[in-house]
Amino acid sequence: MKAEVLSIGTELLLGEILDTNAQYLSRELQNLGFDLYHRVTVGDNVERLTRAFEAALARADLVVSTGGLGPTSDDVTCEALARALGRELVFSEEAWEMVKARLEVRGRSPCDSDRKQALLVSGATFVPNRVGAAPGQVVREGGKTIVLLPGPPREMIPMWEEDVRPLIRRDFPGLRPLFSEDLKLVGIPEALVQETIGDLFQSPDPTVAPYVGLGEVRIRVATRDSDEQRARARIKHVVDTIRSKLGKYIYGSDGDELESVVGELLVRKGLSLAVAESCTGGLVAHRITSVPGASRYFKMGLVAYGPRAKWECLGVRKEDVERDDAVNPEVAISMARGIRAMAAADIGLSTTGFAGPSGGAPGAPVGTIYVGLVWPNGNYVEVQRYPGNRSTVIGLGAQAALALLWRFLARGLEE
Amino acid sequence: MKAEVLSIGTELLLGEILDTNAQYLSRELQNLGFDLYHRVTVGDNVERLTRAFEAALARADLVVSTGGLGPTSDDVTCEALARALGRELVFSEEAWEMVKARLEVRGRSPCDSDRKQALLVSGATFVPNRVGAAPGQVVREGGKTIVLLPGPPREMIPMWEEDVRPLIRRDFPGLRPLFSEDLKLVGIPEALVQETIGDLFQSPDPTVAPYVGLGEVRIRVATRDSDEQRARARIKHVVDTIRSKLGKYIYGSDGDELESVVGELLVRKGLSLAVAESCTGGLVAHRITSVPGASRYFKMGLVAYGPRAKWECLGVRKEDVERDDAVNPEVAISMARGIRAMAAADIGLSTTGFAGPSGGAPGAPVGTIYVGLVWPNGNYVEVQRYPGNRSTVIGLGAQAALALLWRFLARGLEE
Fold first, then answer.
1. What is the pLDDT of residues A216-242, one digit of tens each?
2. How many CB pairs under 8 A join A and B?
3. What local confidence, expressed as pLDDT, does residue B415 receive?
4. Please, what CATH class does the domain formed by A178-253 belong to?
5. For residue A125, what are the β-bridge partners?
6. Where are the domains of chain A?
């Protein structure tokens, strides 16, 4: 079964908007089991849009469009589809009630031009919009299905997930949807992933593929099946194999984020945290506090940017900061120890290094970052040298700090 | 003159990659003066790709494609264009030398499949790639121009800017490019912008349009002209009018960022800064230290997340933190005063509030943020109540803190 995505809107062709809908729907359609060979973007022009619908219907069994359903005269998606199918537009009282209800929620009284949003292609089923005013439509023609959805993602995505996707599953019962599980790893270079489970990457089913992110590796295990349980069982088998070989690097799966996983571990262990940052400039604290409820375990963060802040507030020895290399393991450990004491926290975490573009020191070029960790009866420091520009080095440094903390909390630092 | 953008790559249709190239090139082509009516995405399939080139050439004077120029067998862009034009592929020694040089820089020795990247459509001019291996190509046919560029943006964008764009300007001398200037404003609601210069938004040329960002408003003034000087003069006239009415809110233009502008003002005035953050959790410090050279003026940041950090480190009065509302003007001012003293800085800046989703207090619901500012002979506090989720409130709070600091440095807080 073939599908095609049609992105509609002159603002897209002007480059004013990044078309995230096209990516989202492509992935969704692939996941449902459709083949997708074309994606087309057209402006709000009724002739060109009519031809785009005709071309898509000639090629695909399912056409999904986004955009051009609003109340203004340049919104012509509905009219174009009616023309392409040789049908009329009909006013739907049911759709109109819903449009009016949505406008009322926003405190607007409906005006004449709003009635346009209740015009449906003759024979269409309308799809309720619980966020915005314009409803969507599902039209069927000679075994093919056409779906019209509004352009704003916060309207389009819930309509797709709640109404359209289940409906498409019913319209196309023979599909073999894609099921997948993502494993997320830190503290392991991609090459070592390749070396350890490279043979799995050749597996035709389930497929196993690595993706490299900022300071982490994601491994996706995926398979297609008309039966979800059967698919999940096949995936679990491969995931178990990967876990048996790389388990100690896996911090989570699918939507998990390192800062949330670390937060849960701190809560579970009843430990509190304080952070002293130099080169990462507050990014570690920002990531930790972006998690709701972080105040349960996060006590304090200090951005000790200059040398003076390091010795005055954190008790770092002046001679360590004034050494030729300026950033070194002693500074990292003293910073972590200092913030731990200052905040009366169980764990102190620190970063110090050179983010660039200028700076650096003998033995510590730009990109060098030390991460320090101090806990009640021990301490640990590691050094990394990162390539890339300032923002990449800062991002990788913050990720390294969180990864070290995760390793400590999840399995200890011995191995 | 019509242009068309062709995005090539099966990974795009799988939804694995967000197609930022299409947006970038759409904007660039519009800016150059082309009309853009279609944008098409096709996978790495030589038949479908050949038909896509044929369709684009039937509709447009200029076709720009990205992707499918690599060394592997699924990269078939070049072959598809040759088929569409009925031409041969020819091996270019000159291109091959460049491919080999690029591979050497990466420490790779060229292998057989790499030779594919030196195959050009007969008659093509090749475009050097200074980042990756695959060169681009410019092909001319019957008054039309076809440009093939690689997919990775960090390769594509420099090739477009340095080589292709000037060449297109020469190929199409009659174009009327778009020139524009963006003004960036903080501390003014969009409604007040509308009220003050709303009449300008009706102006047909130059056009004036407002865009709302996170805690800031951008006003774009734009016009088309074959002569840049003439265009710039028309833009300046309108910009001057806007400046005369809204000048005190304008912190910069075009690529300026609030944290860089604030940094320049601190350097120019020889002032140093320290920041104490509660609800913004380190984001203010992170934004300030994301600017290269921030160590010249940024002394220290403290993320005083819990109440204890506020009274123990910053000297906030315990009774102010323990008041029913917990966040209040007194806490904000004491935090700014405390961090200023602790860091021996000229200026102390603070944030305290409730980012949500839970929390809040009587008189200070979720979304309430106080920003405090203390300098040698004065202090100031302001309160905002923001809608939105945790990350939006944190983002708006950090923006408000930087905006207040900018206002203080740029023009004082009296008016």
1. 999 999 999 988 999 999 999 999 999
2. 198
3. 56
4. alpha beta
5. A138
6. 2-171, 178-253, 258-411
